[in-house]
Design a protein that fits this description.
Two copies of one chain form a homodimer. By secondary structure, chain A is α/β, with parallel strands linked by helices. Helix content of chain A is 43%, strand content 15%. The first copy, chain A, has helices at residues 6-13, 17-24, 32-44, 51-58, 74-89, 103-113, 129-135, 161-174, 190-206, 221-233, 246-258, 292-308, and strands spanning 63-68, 93-98, 119-122, 142-145, 155-159, 180-183, 213-215, 240-243, 268-270, 287-290, 318-321, 323-326. In chain A, strands 2-1-3-4-5-11 form a six-stranded parallel β-sheet, sandwiched between helices. In chain A, strands 7-6-8-9 form a four-stranded parallel β-sheet, sandwiched between helices. In chain A, helix 5 (74-89) runs parallel beside helix 12 (292-308). The longest helix of chain A is centred in the middle third of the chain and has 17 residues, at 190-206. At the A-B interface, helix 4, helix 5 and strand 2 of A face helix 4, helix 5 and strand 2 of B. The first copy, chain A, binds a DNA duplex through helix 2 and helix 4. Chains A, B: Keywords: DNA-binding, Repressor, Transcription, Transcription regulation. Chains A, B: GO terms for molecular function: DNA-binding transcription factor activity; transcription cis-regulatory region binding.
Chain lengths: 336, 336
DNA sequence: CTGAAAGCGCTTACAG
DNA sequence: CTGAAAGCGCTTACAG
């Protein structure tokens, strides 16, 4: 039933397998009449070309692999959807692999992709330059997502953390705030570092009068709460706080509320990420929204270019997906 | 570089390709010394067997396909994670395909899976018995998820809507409520229908004195709100409301609150799904939690059985994943 | 234990 | 336009 091969179709149509192949792949080099007979035979036999055989001979799998740290949660959910839609639009299948606890597991997953995919989308904390050299065939088109090992020249797509942070700081400055504190992310975290970089740059260049004020944090709500307590103790007190992510901003607001400080009247707050909860907290949180689905779809587009036109994308190409300021109540924009 | 084939390894190790194949696939039928030489050669050449060639000859892809309506949102996020983890545990790759707007698109996706997968996990609103007959080769192991077309004998895994509803009604009864109203889901929706069935059964059998009271709804928060308005107008008024899903329960609570009715003191409320918001609303919502990830992992397990031991799973096998009562404030359990 | 050979299902020069 | 044949990279009886 499902075992019909090209031979069966050839016999049924009374032609050679070569003609069947030609007729079914665009129909070049066969008469319309022959093609019709072949298509009818194929239909009758419920013929579906065997994917593996075709892969073997054409060296094309029409499949891309996505190696992700996880599949769960809003971030990955959106990411994979962006990838999936873009892949489908190009007629590519999607092979996913996730949850690699350590570098070894990621390496195994990476090697297992070989021969199954025409290209790779890769997001992994284990993917340093050395890891990639060891486990990636150099001729396999690959796009790194939010992963940029120094010293490797793979294409990479990342969130524009720097640009997003600039938007937020400029927004706060525009509202008249001058003492703007920054709650940092985990030490060594690249996203957090880039956000801090944007924060420092804007303060330094736009208004030399505003010194950078940094507080330690680790992306957790608790660390934001602790930072909020520190803000309360500072003299002079900051008039705005920009947290490297939303959860810390929310924790910080909780600390201020406990102390009877009004947000945004007394202190303005900004976050980063636009998590779903951001619009539900009180006051609703002004933050930076990142288009995660776009991260996926643009990475897929970049990969598609490489697959279709090898060499068309220069090694080491870097692209960013934009971040957008979402003004809500916590920054007090309506009041200013 | 990545082009090393079994021939290259054979030459490098000074043996035949047959020996290479044997050594690399378990090592049966080769001396330890030969095997060692071959493994070394393979390592030196960064040899990775070509997946397509292996698929072609072994008729095994070590891949399962998952056809889903979407990938986005909490439900699918959890589902696909359950599938992914279970697949990985069995050493199977996962090919995903989603967002098929119509039956034709789903059919194309289904056919494209052929030859690429050893089995299929399928969730689709388009999958009626006729559709499956047309587009599924009958010898491809398949498990339906929350999709049970009448007249087909595929294996199916579903959420235990009936059991979950029973738990909720029994919970409300145990708290002393007798006039328990039910807010229905969209007409024709199977999940909603099964929940209503469970509701009716428990009322009928456990306490003949409690009549079923149903209100129309469509799973939306607004429809829950409208049902809440109706509840307010009823005489005698129900002392509990069981909504077929959480969003309607939340809408219903909003209507009661507006009218100054206290939940749970005056009317108890129960929902179904345990959406993330359920714990954040005031009062927090007593509801039925379904283990979505388990739906995925159990479906994968059932599929794995079929792949490994063809015929071991009787046609038409039905299984359920459990639902669990989550008691929060809205049912007033602490008060009773 | 080891190797030569057939064959999985397809595509694509190469002749005719 | 059409077909016979080679070959993609692998596995597996079949001999030795």
């Amino acid at each position: 039933m499902s075992a019909a091969t090209i031979k069966d179709v050839a016999r049924e149509a009374g032609v050679s397998v070569a003609s069947v192949s030609r007729a079914l792949n665009g129909g070049h080099g066969v008469t319309a009449e022959t093609s019709r007979r072949i298509h009818e035979a194929a239909q009758r036999l419920h013929y579906v070309p065997h994917a593996a055989a075709r892969m073997l001979i054409t060296r094309r799998t029409n499949t891309v692999g996505a190696l992700l740290p996880d599949l769960y949660g809003e971030f990955f959910s959106e990411l994979i959807r962006g990838i999936d839609l873009a892949a489908r639009a190009r007629g590519l299948h999607l092979l996913v692999s996730s949850s690699h606890d350590d570098a070894d597991a990621a390496a195994v997953a990476l090697r297992a992709m070989q021969g199954r995919v025409d290209g790779l989308l890769l997001m992994s904390p284990h993917a340093d330059a050395d890891f990639l050299r060891q486990n990636l065939p150099h001729d396999l088109p690959t796009v790194l997502m939010n992963t940029r090992p120094a010293g490797s020249d793979y294409c990479a797509l990342s969130v524009d953390n720097d640009g997003g942070a600039r938007l937020m700081v400029e927004h706060l400055l525009s509202l008249g705030h001058r003492r703007i504190a920054f709650i940092q992310g985990p030490p060594g975290n690249r996203d957090a570092g880039e956000r801090e970089h944007g924060y420092r740059e804007v303060l330094a260049s736009h208004t030399p009068g505003s010194p950078a004020i940094t507080l330690e944090g680790d992306f957790s709500e608790e660390s934001g709460y602790r930072a909020g307590r520190q803000v309360l103790a500072m003299r002079p007190r900051p008039d705005a706080v920009f947290a490297a992510n939303d959860m810390m901003a929310i924790g910080c607001m909780a600390a201020l509320r406990e102390a009877g400080i009004c947000v945004p009247e007394e202190i303005a707050i900004g976050g980063f990420d636009d998590v779903p909860m951001a619009r539900y907290v009180t006051p609703s949180l002004t933050t930076i929204q990142v288009h995660i689905a776009e991260l996926g779809s643009q990475a897929m587009a970049l990969l598609g270019e490489q697959i279709d036109h090898p060499g068309s994308v220069p090694a080491g190409t870097r692209r960013h997906v934009g971040a957008e300021l979402v003004v809500r109540a916590s920054s007090g924009a309506a009041i200013a």
